[in-house]
Please model this.
Amino acid sequence: MEFGDPFFGNSYIDAIIRLNIVVLVMTLVVIYLTYGERKVLGRIQQRIGPNRTGPGGLLQGFADALKLLSKEDLRPRNADRWVFELAPFAAFVPIFVILVTLPFAENWGVRNLSLGLFFVFSILGLNIVGILMAGLGSGSKYALLGGVRAAAQMISYEIPLVISLLAVAMLAGTFNLNEIVLLQETRPYIIVQPLAFVIFFTAMLAELHRAPFDIPVAESEVSGGYFIEYSGMRWSLFQLAEYTAMWAFSIFAAVVFLGGWAWPMGTEWGWGWQLFLTIAKSFALIFSMMWIRGTVVRLRIDQLMNFCWKGLIEISFALLLVNGFFLYYGWPEEVLALVQWAATIIFIGFIYTRGVRRSRANEYIGTYRNPEAATP
Amino acid sequence: MSTWPTTREMDIETDGFDTVDMSINVGPQHPATHGVFRMVLTVDGERVVDCEPYIGYLHRGLEKLTENADYRQSMGWWDRTDYLAGMCCEGAYCMAVEKLAGIEVPDRAEYIRVIMMELSRINSHFMFFGAFGADVGSMGTSFIYGWRERERIYDLMEEVAGDRMFPTYFRIGGVTMDLPDNFEQRCRWVLDSVKKGLEDFDGLLTGNEVFIERCRDLSPVTPEQGINWGLTGPMLRATGLKWDIRRAEPYSIYPHLKFEIPVGRQGDVFDRYMVRMAEAYQSVRIIEQCLDEMPKSGLVLNPSLPKTLRVNDAECYLRTEGTKGEYSIYAIAKGGNKPYRMKLRSPAFCSLSALREMVVGTYVADAIIILGSIDIVLGEVDK
Model:
């Protein structure tokens, strides 16, 4: 049976039913992602996290959702009414639409688009509209700062994000996500394109406003950023969009780089294993995002921009060029993988040594612990 | 030496667009203002062009209250100035009154006082590491790492004095009661955990590349500027000036103790952080020495004190090294059981007055961490 074949009745009803299933699963996943984030952060911060509602706090997400639904929907007096009220939807819908193309398992997905990859990264940018609407329409200066920061950051990081995806699409020779997954049956693309994955993951963190790129929503600076004036249901829509984006991006990364449902043993062990693979890979990525959030401090806006425009974009263009040479001359894939791994190690090593060398931190650390030594 | 801009320099060509500066009100209810502090930032995009601090939300009339109460009754209010290190403030107040009235303090009591004051200093510095990390954006992880050590110190203080934050443990002429039996062992355990906590902060913040990027070379202050602006304590030492009241104008038993004065190199935010790290370590060292050298028994309160303390005409200025800088008291007595005047020179207030010089020209995010690096405690700023 083909991917697009109607599963339930005719094709329209089929599409609607599939969409509904995705929405339900998504809501459930988001509720448990918030719970999971609080638990993981709690563990990192040496606390317990939610444990009062239900066994082990498992119902905490539902309790939060209920509380948010019953809260008053406030609108500041000087807010631009329609812009303010529609912004959460404009932010949420594009993220949700991404889920339409993602293959969760073989023949499991809403639609199998032949330009799936292209569709995803064209839709991604629309999220900014909602955030800018919230920032400009709230009538609050914090929201304005947050919204403008978000727009600058997301537009910048879209470029390395898309280029790193293009690098994979070059190798795959297709934009169809299902075919990209099938091509990774023997080895996931992260082995061939580690640098592309590093760039993608970094840009993904920036797109999702996760630490260390959580500048638009920085609590200690703009105390929430573009959604500072929202409450109740509209606020929760922003949160829903954020966590859905996390999940959608993680599945997307799993599909493009980590082998999706196909690697390992995907085509042999049936759909249950395939579904498990996709979900497990995406959750591993989400966990690493939470881990980073719990331990890394925030960058400043100009450092963030410098890192993108003076670092990531150049590297991603070079990456594209190297891939092109390899494809044009038909050099073996193993050599490409070697080159990429070397570049990845140099890239990460450069960032690490740069920080430590220029900081004098290594001189400080160690000296002050020795009581007899002259202190810094 | 002022860096206050007289005219605005436009960084960007406007190309026919009119840009206006925007003023943002930060506080008094803002997560990064460490209490009820308010500042109005005028920003050009992300760059701060002006900063106007407003204080006084926590003013409780401490000095006036002290003038209207018996010498011994005011103790509890002085705890509440620098409420992260209540014992340091108590110590300063007690020493001021003792200097005024010429009261001797037993040897053992002096050691106990120094131990308690240095524990308070560690306590306050850990709060700084935690809150500063949160300002820079570590999602509360640093905050809770700081709290772990603080809780242990507070538990120890509760065992000693019966209260955690505002112990009112010191008395004029000594301390209230002797230490509990297992104090030395417990205290050494706490000190070990403090050392481990400092290592944790090395791992979490000091060695973090993003943290270094944010803090390095941010708002450097020269020693001359520091002196002109009235900076004291870690803020001044970060500029490279070796100035510590515990050495420059020793009080209590500090002359007998061995410790270094950590100094920074260029007075930037990173140096301020590192100086506090090193200071916390030196405090551990001081406490360990005190535990070793302390007389094992003896009086802890001067027994020859009158029931009501009356001081005839006297005047004194007492300087102590508080956790935020020079915590000094100017006291006048004109007979009777109440002081005529008790003036507090609070270090955070003086450091805060230099906020504008340090903040103008940086980014909004930097303004927040510069404010954090001053380590203000509003109880002390507003008195």
In short: The radius of gyration of chain B is 22 Å. Chain B touches chain A through 54 residues (CB under 8 Å). Residues 1-7 of chain B have pLDDT under 50 and may be disordered. The domain at 62-382 of chain B is CATH 1.10.645.10 (Cytochrome-c3 Hydrogenase; chain B).
